[in-house]
Amino acid sequence: MNDWLFGLEPGESRQRVTGGEEKSCDVVHNCANLCLLMTLFFKEPVLLTFRQREVKSPGKCGIIPGAIGSQLRTRIQIPINRAGQMKYSTRQLIVLKILALVLFVIGTSVNAEEVRGRGKRWVRSHPFTLMALSENEKMHDSSVYRGAGLNNFLVWRYEPEIFEVAYDRDFPLGLPWHFHVEEFELTENVKSRVKDLDRSYPGATGWLIKDEPQTIAMPGLAKIMEWLRQTYPDKLVYSNAFPIGGTPGKYFGRDPNGPYSYDKYLEDFVNILKPDVLMFDIYPFKGGGLSSLYFKNLENVRFEALKAGIPYWAFIQSCQGWAGTTLPSESELRMQIFTSLAYGYTGFAYFIYGTPATEYRALLDADGRPSYLYYEAVRVNQEVMNLGRALRFLEGKRGPLYVPYIPGRHLENGQVVDNNYPSGTDPLTDEVGREWKIENISVDEGVGLRRDALVGLFQDDEDGRYFMLVNTWCDIGVSARDRQASFTVTLSPEVKVISRLSRETGATELIQVTNSKIKVTLPGGTGDLFKIGDSRFPGLDGGE
Fold first, then answer.
1. Which of 53, 362, 404, 514 has the most CB atoms within 10 Å of its CB?
2. pTM of the model
C-alpha cells in the first residue's frame, strides 16, 4: 500500500508529492489542485492523503506487480489549534464539507472504474480462455483434456479428485483452473475452503460465483465476490447469468410485484454483483432446430457488458440429453463459436466435458471416450486461439447495428424468397457501412434457410477498423464442408489494402481487392477476421 500526500505551504504555487513517487493519474492531479485551492483559501497547509491498492497492468495510476485492480481512499489533514480545536469559521467548515463530498464522489467513481477495468486487463493479459465444465473425476485424463485444445479447467464441484486431475504432477506447471463457488453467503467456511484450494492446488485463475443466480440472492453473492476481489486481486471473479426466455419470477426469485424483464435482470446482475466479466449460458439446439432467441440473447448480453465496460463470455452447447438438447454437428458447433466471436465474446466454456450418465453425450461419451464432437472441438479450438490473440484487444460499439445480419434466400412454394432476419438482428445500414468503409455484403448464388451471414464490426485502441464475416448456415448432422457458402464484400473506393488473420495458421495475409470487392468462401458456421487499411493486428506479439 502506498500513501500519496499532497501538501502546499502558504505562498507555494507548485504541487508537492511526499510518501511515494510522482503519479500522472488525472484524479491525483485534480485532487492536488483542490489541495492548492483549499490552502490558498485557508492560508494554512492542507494535506490530502490518498491510499491506493496495488495495480498490475500499465495504466494511469502506476505499475505494481501482483494485482489487477486498485482503489483510492482519501483523507483530509487540516490544522488545529493547541487546544485540539479546528481553527475554522462556519463558512470555512461548510467549504470543507463540500470538499469532503467532492473527494467521496471522486473516490467512488475511481473505485467503480477500477472494478470495471479488472476484467478487461485480465482478458488482455491471458490467452483466450477455453475450458469445459468438469464435475466428475472419473471422466478425466489430463492429456485428453489438454488434447481438446482446452487451456483452463472449470471445476464445478468441491471434489479433491478433480483438482488432482487439473493439477497433474506430470505437467510441471499444471493447468490453470476456475472454481464454481456454490454458496449464497460469505461465511468462514467459504473463506476457508477457497483458501485451502488456492494453497493446495497452484494454478487458481478465476472464481465463478453461483450459476444462474436469481436477483434476490445477489446481495449476498456480491459480498462473496467483493471478498474474493480483495483477497485475490490477480484472479478473475464472475458469475453466470440465466439465458433469455424465462419468467419474471424465475429471474427475480419470487413474484417481483411488477414488470421484470430479462434486460433488467442483466442490468441488476452487472450493477449488484460487479463481475469482472459478464458470462451467460444458452443451449440453442433442442429438438433439431436453432432457438429463435439465440441471436437476441447474444446481443442482450453484449449490450449490457459494453454499457458496463466489461468483457463477456458464453457457455457453448456440447451436450445431448440435458433439457432436450441435441449433440451439435460440426457445422452447429462452429456456428455457436464463430457467431459468438462476431458479437465480441472473449472466453468460452463448453457445457459439458463428460458425464457417466448413459442418457447424456458430450465431448466425451458415457464410457469416457472422446465423442465425434471432441475431435471437432480440437480443430475449432485451435482456430479460436489463433483469432483470439487479436480479438482480446478489439471492441465493438453498443447496439445490434454493429453486428449486422445479411440474409440470403430460400425456396418457398417453388419461389426464391428472402430469408428472414432473426429476432434481435438488423441489416447493415448506410451510416454504419460508411464508418467501416463497407458499402455492401451479399450472399452469393445458392439457396437455403439460414444460408446467411453475420458481420461483427470492431475497432482497436488506435481506432483501426476490423470485421468478422461468419457463414451462419448449419444443420443437425451436417458437416461444415456441406454447408459451405460464398459472400461478396463491396468496400469503399478508397480502400486499397485489406488483410485477414488466418484462423488456420495465426498469420496475417494480404487480400486482393478487385474493383473494390473481395470474395470470401467459408465452411458452414465458420468466420474470418479482416482488417481494413493495413495488416497490423494487435496481440500477435504476445503483448498489448
1. 362
2. 0.81
